[in-house]
Amino acid sequence: MAKVQLNVRLEEDAAEMARQAAETRHLPVNEYVEQLIKADNEPLRERFLAGAQEVLDGYGDLLDDLESAA
User: Fold this and answer.
1) Segment 29-63, tens digit of pLDDT
2) DSSP string covering 16-42
3) CA angle 45, 20, 14 (to 5 degrees)
4) Which DSSP state fits 44?
5) 63 by DSSP, 3-state: which?
6) CB 63 within 8 A of CB 53
């Protein structure tokens, strides 16, 4: 996947915390922030996909019938 540049403004103390945390993990700050964003969003994505699968499992035949009728 292509990388895009995103500029973010942080309070000085938050920026320093990000630098220190990234350094502790031997990562560039951008990779550290990327990991935080993914860790924050992956559980939501997984729950959404599980819910969508439940709908398909429970109502898939009805959805197929509706699609056929259209």
Assistant:
1) 999 999 999 999 988 888 888 888 988 888 888 88
2) HHHHHHHHHTT--HHHHHHHHHHHHHH
3) 65
4) H
5) helix
6) no
